Batch of 4 targets.
Target 1
Amino acid sequence: MMKNYHLKSRRRQTIYRRPTAIVILFLLVVGGLTFLFPRLFPQLSHSLGTPFWKAKEVTGQYLQAPLSYFKTKSSLERENDRLESRVQELEARVAITALLLDENNALKKILQRAENRVRTLARVIVRPPQSPFGTFIVDTPVDQGKQVVAGDAVLLGESVERLEDSSIVRLYSGSDNVLDVVLASGVFAEAQGRGSGNFVLEVPKETEVAVGEYIKTTTESDYVLGVVEEIEDNETSTFKRVLFRAPLNLHSIEWVEVIES
Amino acid sequence: MSTIQRIIYNALIGAAVLLFPWWALVGVLILFAVTVRSPYELLVWGLVIDGLYGFAGTRFLNIGFFTWGASFVLLFSLFIKDRLLAYNR
């Protein structure tokens, strides 16, 4: 009995040594190759994945129309009502925005700070929740560190990896990202990304914050980072917790613009 | 598990890598690790996922998050399977 037990134990030990050795060898090879050629695996993977994603984007456009026939009449009516009220709300905002934009441009001309940035259009081929790590993949090579905006004035993130035919853009709302922001009242704060376009920040209790106000980064005054959605004011705490999010649905963005200069 | 089944499984993982949300992909990978006897393909899939979606901030010792995860899941699944009677039939 004793001898059998020892044999089994020895057999088990040799069984574990083999997979462990294979995994360690694999990790050493991968780590070594990545150290020597940092873009080898991303470039190989993207050269396989990008054609699939581009095809998916194109076919997705044609598939959406036929699939809409399967929606129920009541759900379409509900959606129509919701969208109509949203359009009215946005039309009112656009009217004010146009006035403010004219005034802003006039002031910039007077102060000789006219907008002279070059922007490049890029198509989003992978977006959350498909991509882990809160990233977008765009079909244009973008230099590392270049900022990406959507919908004219919403700051989304910056390029973190440039490949031959595509780039990886990391969202500022990534879960471990910390950003310096400024509130509409001029108060500076540190915002923490919460993923999928959500952020959270804490400000002293007496700071004036309102739901719906825009929040910008301290470095980019021309672009909006998010809109305040909720304010958590706890009686026992000396701070307010402000939850804000990007004013766009990140899961359905098709095009973004890269700020080139 | 037959070779055909294994190929089908890997095709499903390939589709999940390119088309599914990341949490569905993780689910498929865990299912693969649980049901397949020696799921060594996990290492390659981890490498592919890191290649597609990873960047410098998601690497530790030049190895991506998913490659590390796949290595641990593979070793853990082999360790567990050896101790479960259901896998030793």
Target 2
Amino acid sequence: MAHSRYPKRSLRITDTQADVPRDVRDEIEFHLEMRAQELVDQGWEPEAARAEARTIFGDRQRIEQQCRALSQQVSRRQRLVETFHSFFSDIRHALRYLCAHPSYFASVTFTLALAMSLVTAASSVVYGVVLRPLPFAEPDRVVTVFNNYPKVGALRSKNSFQNYLERQHQLDSVEDFALYSEQTRSVGEPGAVRREFSMTVTPSFFRVLGIHPRLGSFLAEEQIQPGQERQVVIGSRLWRERFGASSEVIGRILPVDGEPHIIAGVMPEGFAFPGWDAQIWLPQVVDSEVAERRLHGENFKMFARLQPGATVEGAQTEMDLRNAAALSQLPSEIQTRRSSGGFGTRIVGFHEDLVRDVRGWLLLLLAGAVFVLVIACVSISGLQLIHTTGRLRDLATRFVLGASRLRLWRQLLTESLVLAVLGGGAGIALGAFSLGWWLHRFETWEIPRIDEVSLGGPEMIVLAAGAFAAMVASTLMGVFAVSRRDLFAVMREGSATPPASSGRWQGGLVAAQVTVAMVLLVGAALMIVSLRNLLAIDLGFEERSVVAAAINPPTVRYPNPEAQMSLFDAVLAEAASMPGVRAVALTSRLPFSEWDEMTPIVAEGQRRDPGGVAPNHHLSAVSSDFFEALHIPTLQGRTFDSGDDRSAQPVVILSREVARRYWPEGEAVGKKLFLGSEPGPEDPGFTVVGVVGDIVQEHVTETAAGAIYLPLRQFPRGFVRVVMSVEGAGGAGGVALEGLRERLAILDTELPLFWYTDLEERVATSLMSYRLPMQFLSLFAAIALFLAAVGVFGVLSRSVALRSKEIGIRLALGSSRGAVCSSILRGLIGFVSVGLVAGVGVALAFSRILGHLVYGVSTTEPAVFAAAALVIAAVAALAAVLPAQRAGRIDPVRVLASE
Amino acid sequence: MAGSNLYSGTLDLLILRSLVWGPLHGYGIGRWIRKSSSEILKVEEGALYPALHRLEKAGWLKSEWGMTERKRQAKFYRLSKQGQQHLHAETSRWHEHAGAVQAVLAAERS
């Protein structure tokens, strides 16, 4: 530092440690000297002039004191202003620098923004679905309850009335149990009937939710009893749309499925039951006097609210004891069913249970996005390293000219912050923008609560902060490089030759990139193979150009099966007469449509194994053209025809799996069977008239349970689906459904057609839990691969540029160009290999998590790993081509002449 | 505040006025004021300095150390943008005031 007085003072304005007293003293001293000089010029003696100057100046001490006081205030404020000023000037400087290097600026910002947008969107989805609290009071106390019979493979059965009666108020750790089931209902006066999602619930349902009505009250406790005037609770959306949010709605009559219901209350604003956005809540009547068959039918979902402080484990223990104690009081049939099935009741946190199918996937998705962020940060570190080496000379010059090392660091740090803020901010904006696209993709997957996802959440903020720190850290690579450099040495050497250590740094970064790319690529490859395996599975029916919709004739107007059947016949005739409809049929259940009915059977003349459990088979009641509409092949015998009605002998068609199980010799046609496990003595049974091909019922990965088909005329159902196979693809199905709706309106103005289904879409949706993660992982892997390629390219280009002199000498001394290229590549191969090995290790560590997410392929499948490694090696080689060529093209004469 | 009493108000105005032609150090400002109006600084010349620092604090002046023609280090003052505006406003006010006083003094008995 300079010690002479004046230069020090000339720095005063930028010196935040201004010495106020000395400045004031100097200023006044100057005045006195000048004033004395003036007097000398007028003829005064120097000594007298000085004395006179002091006299006319006045009380110097007091004046100096006043000046100091004023000046100190100025200086304090000035310091603050200067701090701000220098901060903004740093930012301005950084921006100016970055704008002067647009390709560097753009590549860093773009990489960061891309990675950050993925993390933003993924974490928003994870928060909205997995982490965000449910719309219940104290949601941690709400649990799902379901029965299971593990010995017969029924891991998730529902609950019965009897279960409710034997559990409610019987467990110390549970405050309330509630039964509920989900349906759709025709709601409203004739002429304004609309289909609404509904729930039928015990009055305890609302206590389990722990919420309060917006208006009126919830269902009264006695609504559970039979013979009451029926009440209904409506959702706030329905309340607004149908009743204009009128406060006088309580007590009014609302027809539900044609029956009058009194509106008891309105749900709180915005309440959406997770997974079933109902707008109608009807009372579930629990009549302990009803037939035993209904009492024990496990047709209801159940949830419960734990007592404050009770644990899920405690409730589970209590439930197990309760089940054991209740067993002896049950009818013998139920006792047998329970003991043979290994009956148990599971209690699981409601939220945990709700997201059980998607939680793993969504976390995997988030992990993938975080991996992309990691590889992006690594790439940026690499870019920084290259870039900073390129400007070492500039930095060294400024260092030599007096900028402190701290000052240089501060500038580099400011640049990093600017990059992180711009890149991260752009990423969050892009994430918010792309979230809609993500959600659109996810909608087809039918994830619970996905429609409630919005940007953000506290966890996302934490994640964003972490990501921001990672971005700053990665952009700080240049700062580390400078701190390790002797800037004077750079000046002395006259060239920006960085020490070898930065090459090692860069190689390490390439290895890290390859590691991450390997992990993502293996994940994506496993998903691609899984999906290919799934798509190769034969469904057993044709799903293309098949559409369906449900009708449910109200019993008020169609009181008996004959009336319903004549309506169905009219519907079939109308549909068949429509242009473009190839085949039309009715069925009580449709594959891939979450509506199932299963039954065991007993074949005539065969005895069930004593103690063995009869397997369940899918049961459908279908009209005659069902097999034609779905292209299910007839293997033996015949399909149904119009003669198979109630006056004729009961008949049945089996799928191959069922036929093979009971009549392995292929002699099923003409034999007799009984539905249920214990046929009564009067049961006439059903005669097998045909055998058809097996079809996949719910999911391509299911184990075939086989199917039994009954003629709809003999086995009437009030709730059926109209299935139409149409000609032409794309919109033809939708057009046909619309046509059907119009014709149906002519037959019966109050009969809504609902649950429009496109079977091809349903099948595709059932694969979404594989297809979507595959798509996202592939996207992530592609990004990772690209970034790794850029990394390899950067390292090699730099190494060629730095070694051009050495290469020139080697070429001049007779080395072949091939040898030069391979010497350039040798280091790279080492780093890539290290990355591949590490990637295999990390991928193997993750393989356990991936285990239940893949199909038909092992998560440690060597072929997949080999393929991924090969792809990375190929991409690395491709990225190396250009720099290696450049090395080979170096002209030794030019290089040596430039020395 | 400046302008609240006649003496300091006038001194402030003179200081600002002295800087209209460019930066000056304290001594130069004092000399200009002495030449323009022998009365104001008669009591003590040093009173100029607290006034300068006060005006700087008010934001009407900026100061900077620099070299004089004789190669001496001195603290130079110059008008800030605000200072210029203030001078302009004060000058018009002064003219009005002076005009009013003039009118009163010149008024004839009616």
Target 3
Amino acid sequence: MRTLDWIVLVATLLSIVLYGIYKGRGSRNIRGYLLADKQMKWYTVALSIMATQASAITFTSTPGQAYVDGMRFVQFYFGLPLAMVILSVTAVPIFHRLGVYTAYEYLEHRFDLKTRVLTTIIFLISRGLATGITIYAPSLVLSVILGWDIRITSSIIGIAVIIYTVFGGVKAVNWTDFQQMLIIMFGMLAALITTISLLPSDVSFIDALRVGGVSGKLNLIDFSFDLDNRYNFWSGLVGGMFVALAYFGTDQSQVQRYLTGQSITQSRLGLLFNGLAKVPMQFFILLLGAMVFVFYQFERPPVFFNPVEKNRIESSAKGEEFKNVERQYATAAEQHSFQLKSYLETLRSGNENAQENIRAELREASKRVGEIKARALQIVKANDPRADTNDTNYIFLSFVVKYLPVGLVGLVLACIFAASMSSTSGELSALASCSIVDVYKRLIHKEANESHYLFVSRIAMALWGIYGIAFAQYASTLGSLVEAVNILGSLFYGTMLGIFLLAFYFKSVGGTATFWSAFVGEAVVLCCFWFTKISWLWYNVVGCGVVIGVAALLNILTGTTGRGESQTRPYN
Amino acid sequence: MNEELQTQDPKLGTSQYDASLFFKSWRRLYIFVLSELALLIFLFYVFMKFFS
């Protein structure tokens, strides 16, 4: 990090905080503080939705994912535009018409209090844990790459977010999301263009794509149907749609973004813009990763990208063995690079027979490179069984720090911080909304004036922020539990979605049937998780289907009706 | 149903004139979003086949 990088990084972070404070001023009640007075235009809603969804890990690990696994991850987003259309037709008009503060408030109107409380608890637990991860994961990566203490990186992200969210509420969150998304788009585009320009002078962009293609990194579409295969066209379209429906339709951190829209039109346009822009955006981020891969085909890559683990193994008893493998890797990578240049030559000459021969040689060479890398990782693991041998998260940032020009390093790091702040702020405001509207105001202190609720909303926002920082400080001691927490979040989405689909489409189903079917649905999802190898993308389909099926059955057996039940309930 | 919801409640700040800012009806906008997805999938497929 040079002086100019520091200036860019600090200036960007300061501008975000100051802009948030400036735009968030003037909230006099909780409608202003938690719903931004419903004054947001579609473009603010749209970029706020995108910024909340795109966490820092999206920008650190997605290029690394393309480097390791190719661009097939883009298929995961194919279901998203479908979900945006469905939610625009169903959820948006219903939530707007009822004027709710949270998605779970609607469930009391539609079903009963116990269903509202159940979904609120699920949200507070799963999103509360995820908020800690949202701060912890990028803090860890940044601390490893920059050599900073993780307490510094997590505190920078957490404190900056707390300052403007506590002060300005959702208005500050939405406007800073808007600003952060623009910074992120500009930074990632600059990184893509610069990466392409860093390729050797005799390798054009088309050549780079050919190298990516022959190396299997442009594997964008896979039409084969396989339940165990995490990313293919079908899991992306169907499973991805259910994930997106659950996330955007039932998770308050997203629902709150479009509840701030000035009208149904503005909220719908915000969601639909996300549907239009998300797939191309992910494509370009993955393309950036593929270009980093191509860059390293002509510039010797490290055998292992995690600098902390690498230093540890080099200074251990197995250090010499690791260095030997590292030398073999360098030789194999050099040969591979030479063959790639020959391949490009044959493509230019149009000699098809030679192309086929070199392709076969290339496959052999890359297999050899992969085998040597696997041997290096085995040594790391043998030295310390707890060592993290997955270096996907470190590939892009180590490339940024080592090769990008001065100024751009600061900008890309600012993008990572901005992405983390935008997700964290959205989550904090959603957690605070549910804590106050669904718990405090509904169950604890029903009658109080606006200034009291505004005050406790600010307190809730600050407390959730402090909790997030504290979680990030101590998460490293949790080890594999962090991964478990991530999986935990995905286990609840199917059940939540099932409850909301029952609310939207199954008018005869009542609260009691829905409440108990949620437990059955959750049990089935947990069985899938423990006893099958089904990709987690399908858990949402399973959970949702079971909740709807069991609720419909219970409804028939008990003979209750949803409308009658809900009309007798008090509505907050 | 949802188109009706928009026009029934004037407090929502919507009217038949702002069904969509860019298209004549919501249905056309939805078709546009889904068509873009179909086009992208087609282009990705062509892109993948061309360079591999």
Target 4
Amino acid sequence: MSDLFRLSGYEISQKIKNQEISTEEYINSIIERIEKVDEKINSFISKNYENALRKAKDIDKRIKCNENIGKLTGIPIGIKDNIAVRGIKNTCASKMLSDYISPYDASVISKINNEDAIIIGKLNMDEFGMGSSSEFSHYGAVHNPWNLDYVTGGSSGGSAAAVASMQVPVSLGTDTGGSIRCPSSFCSVIGMKPTYGTVSRNGLISYSNSLEQIGPVARTVFDLVPLLNTIIGKDFNDDTTFNYKQNLLINKIEDIVTKRYRIGVLQDMIEKCDTNVASVIYEKINLLKNYDCVISETNIQYSDFALASYYIIASAEASSNLSRYDNVRYGFSSNPEGYEWNSYFSKSRSNFGDEVKNRILAGSYVLSAGYYGKYYIKAQQIRSIIIKNFINLFKNFDVLVLPTMPILPYKIGEKSSNPVELYHSDIYTILANLAGLPAISIPAGFSKNGLPIGIQFIANSHDEQKLIDIAMVCEKSYTFNKWCPEI
Amino acid sequence: MSYNIDIKKLSNLSKIEVPDSEINDTSKKIVQIINFFNKLDEFVIDGQTDIDYNNKIELQISSLRDDEPLIKKNLNGDTIENVFKFEFPHHKNGFVLGPRI
């Protein structure tokens, strides 16, 4: 029974429902696993063991009494620490919010709780989601389970590392410019950014409203889909959510093959990658031909300008969103009595980490009167052009394929001193955020020195089902769900 | 192209204190970032690239909800539900402590 943590959430939920094991027994094995492994990984900021065990006992009681139970019964979920869970610290991995306890649940948390999933803790990340390596956390860097000296990618590094190291079967992350897909690629798990407006952002501590989405991370499609189905749908507390609810299915391979998906290969982007990455991506694209997919080459115009546009928009929105942190309404312990307002405000905010400060300063610069047109308006114009490009591409293709990351995971501390060098690693993930499109990162293989590589698929808005189908084909053909690091 | 950015003025605008010892390093990083943003100078606006807000997915599909007040009050004007209780870090005699304005 000590290996229960190796099972998928789907398998565990079935065993609990069939009373082969108790929820309490399983949650205890997960706690044991976290206590054993996480001191090496550093994926958790807060642990919620007491509430988790209380809920586990309640679920067991209800099963014995034949009461209704949810579709995620007994599945432990880790939550990125920028999503509000009532009564638990909600730090965003920042000193600014180190003492902040959320007074309410985010809408996604209410939905998960209604389906009887168990929130086991809050996960480490780059401070406020700003970063691509999960090194910029007040609580220390997250370590990659495949090689502890390497970064996990970010900003949802804790979400991906906790799943990859089998501390939890599934987790929630947020994706502003690849923050789910990048760590999923670096940690060899599946991570999906849904269409903008599919999942409510109510209760997400926002950094860039027009770009970010909450999404799931899992080791298998069988866990990803039920969690995604739980969190999607209209929410009256978030007017960017739309009115219809998709019911995503795990289709049989025979049915998927009949759809003859048209796959556009973004050739230029693959060729610009690290050679290890490119060869693995080509290998997996060739494999899709065996499933009657129609493969042809294409490209996206103006993608060279997308990265700068993304960072201008994200920094501008960050400088606006983070202006609320004045250390009076919420913050860390620092008595304001006797201070003058401006000096207290500025002094408190100097406790943001370096990367957050850089983005606030850059955001203030691009929004200032003399530069607004030069940077912000132009970035929005390029964003419009890129959206139009995608609309045209999806007249001819069902999905587009490209690497998730152009590089392999790198050593902790190797790139953290140069912000622009780090920004360039996001070049293939920010496209889906600029256009609001759904995208998924699927484990594709490993480099010669054993570092994970992810393959990314982008679909038209609301075509998540196509991404799920492709992920299912990959899982069945090379069983990436069986890959696990030795820790 | 290299830019000379007045980091003191920018930090004042952003309400972030940058200590004198960190000005050079911060300034260097912000100049790197702004130079990276200047990539957009190479993009020529052809007059037909206005921002097309119809491309925004949420506006095509979403409809606005009715505006309902979050805080409800009873006949005496007392708040009765849906109010979040914040724990302010510093308070005295029932008032939230803040800096002088």
